[in-house]
Amino acid sequence: MLLSCLQTSNNPSDRCRILLTLGNAAAFTVNQNLIREFEGIHIIAGFLSDPAAEVRVQTLNALNNLCMNVQNQEQIKVYVPQVLELIEMSPVNSELQLGALRLLTNLSVTDKHQHLLKESITLLLSLLVVSNEALQVQALKVLVNLSSNPDMMDDIVQAQAPASVVLLFDARTATAVLLRLLTFAGNLKAWRPSAQVADELRRKQDCLFRVMLDESSQLHSRLVQLLSHPDGEIQAQVARILT
């Protein structure tokens, strides 16, 4: 009944309420399966292009809960390009961007669908330097997931990255952001390229390797400064990376 109402509703506020209800229902495994069996995932995902921004937000939230189910991920993965486009086209720090990143976080927890995000690395890195704390944390959750997979590392280090990313390794950066940044940096540092690959990457202008891993990067000196950070967990993470 809810799915039928959603398809026939002409009122954006009604669509929001129906999607909110479906999203809440999808917090439970039995309903995640029911919604999929009723073809509900594709019906709900159709509202990713709804003219009303608040409807798109509730659509992302519902898909996010549905994404907690492995079988549902097989259907949701086809909407990754549309979700990435929403991030790119939406206002910075908007609920749309946050909802889209939450969905990508759940979809990238295991390495099964991470390859679908290969083209999103530059977008995620760019968000880090322009967004607020909540969005930075969510973008970093995706980057940490991707960088935990050795098969993704070649794509990550070759991605274009703003040079100002290293400036976030600073005592004034929010602790929640800094901890995830350090986890991401630790994953990158654990990657060991051959001398030939490293030389090739040095010739790539503005790639993440040059910004964060090359000998010319400011990262090392900024990490040393963080050894005196008042937070013990940050100190420990920095020490692990440096050693």
UniProtKB/TrEMBL annotation:
Which PANTHER family does the annotation name?
ARMADILLO REPEAT CONTAINING 10, ARMADILLO REPEAT CONTAINING PROTEIN
* UniProt keyword 4Fe-4S present: no
Pfam families on file:
Arm_2 (PF04826)
Keywords of this entry = Membrane, Mitochondrion, Mitochondrion outer membrane, Transmembrane, Transmembrane helix
The topology of this chain with respect to the membrane is:
Single-pass membrane protein
Q: Which domain of life is it from?
A: Eukaryota
Where in or outside the cell it occurs: the entry states: Mitochondrion outer membrane
Query: Start and end of every Armadillo repeat-containing domain?
Result: 2-212
Indicate whether Mitochondrion appears among the record's keywords: yes
Q: Which Gene3D superfamilies match?
A: Leucine-rich Repeat Variant
What is one GO cellular-component annotation here? mitochondrial outer membrane
Q: Which organism does this record belong to?
A: Lates calcarifer (Barramundi)
- What is the protein's given name? Armadillo repeat containing 10
